[in-house]
## 1
Amino acid sequence: MIATSRTLKAELDWLEAAIAARIARHFGTGQAASPSPPRLSPKTCPLARALRRAQVPPEGRLLLALALAPVLRPEALDPFLTRNPATDRVFSEFCLAARPEGGAQPSLGTAMFLLDTEGDRRAALEMLSADGALVAGGFLLPLRGLDAPGLHAPLELAPQFVGRILLGTRHRPEFRPDFPAKRLETQMRWEDLILPERTLHELEEVLAWTEHGAALAATAGIGRLILPGYRSLFYGPSGTGKTLSAALLGQRSGRDVYRVDLSLVVSKWIGETEKNLARVFDQAEAEGWILFFDEADSLFGKRTDVTQSNDRYANQEVSYILQRVEDFAGIVLLATNLRSNIDAAFARRFQSMIRFDLPDPAARLAIWRNAFPEAHLLAPEVDLVALAEEVALSGGEIVNTARTAHLTRLRAGAPTVTAASLRAAIARELHKAGKLAGAGP
């Protein structure tokens, strides 16, 4: 936080000097030139990194400092409280409003006054648009009341910026149509992950990147040759642990995992896909999230042959997403049931492809025992060893079966899960999956 404090002080000092110079020029009391922006440093400063990553130009930094002033240095806005002797009111051209909690609130009009060249003003309006660097980059909220009253639309800090940069806390946005991602959580632990040793070893390699990826990128020679970030494909039948592994990778590495809802990604409105995904990727890079694309073949599969204009736009949107995935400096995990469904051109960009197989009898027994850790809840006639040998269920199907059997026990007020109720739960799960029951317990 020390580096951030120093950067904030330099930015606010610059704002004060810029305000003084602009007011002097406006009232003809001086011809001071606008001061030059301070140098963004060091690289360890989260604020400096965020500004560089979002490519915020100097005029954008000045607007951000203006929005920060009411919170961090309200006295910097005192020159805007100068009263017009003709009206005994604050000069209208400053467009300063009162904050509900007290103090002055800078607005779009305040920014337009401070930036007194047409070029800077146009650049500011662009940065304050929904796709602009300050809004899309998560620094400021979209302007309210831009149509009317317009210039009085307040410059407001985005909650994620306040949390991440000013308070050092994590921002966890809620799922919504224009933010098609939801945080993936689990109460399970890494020890609960029952997978073959080969699969566990490959997952450990993903974890190794979370610890050593930055050092690898800085290594002479190889650092120049590799793409930023890490991309891994999880493939295998449903219920084999792909989603759970993604959640546990986040838990082990101390990173939030966000699952992207692909049904909301590709919009019928041309260009909306790029906007929605940009919000997710920009915040993921800023917060260090892991992104998880489930059923990825629906988006990253083989390209559509162009037969009509909609196909062309669909392929353009997919190309945009592929490029964002390739350029993403963090971890992207993609899951599919069939590896062959993924476009070969994109498959080459993965750093790893991890196969998730259906569990063998020994693994099934371990999962059954995890689902029934308290043996006294099982009736004496239930033989989990035989069950694991005879009925080929995936890990997800075993968990669903155990849930159904436990619920049946609780509804009946019974002390144990009986063999009959477990057989019924297995039959239900097999029927749901379109399978035939092989044997009961």
## 2
Amino acid sequence: MTTDKCKVRWSSKARRDLREIYRYIAKYNPPAAEQFAISLHNQISKLASLGLPGIQDDTQSDIRVFVFRERRFYIGVTDTAISILRVVHGRQDQASIDFTDNEKTDEN
């Protein structure tokens, strides 16, 4: 059985979140920041090949959550694409996360 790989789209907020995470890690340990970026890319590629990633978020029925290295990735899922909406640390207040419905996503 083969599965078609979904397209991966990143919202501008998710890209900004990821840049901030990378910069924070790189400030203390640049090789760890590079390894985090590589590992994350590999995990996102795996999710795209599986189709329906993560667990459903209790507060947002159309959003799924994928946890990777203490970060929560909030993901919108369709039949052909996964849209990464936000990336936040697990200790961050999850209730205050802003999900803008009409936000532009970019393919990666």
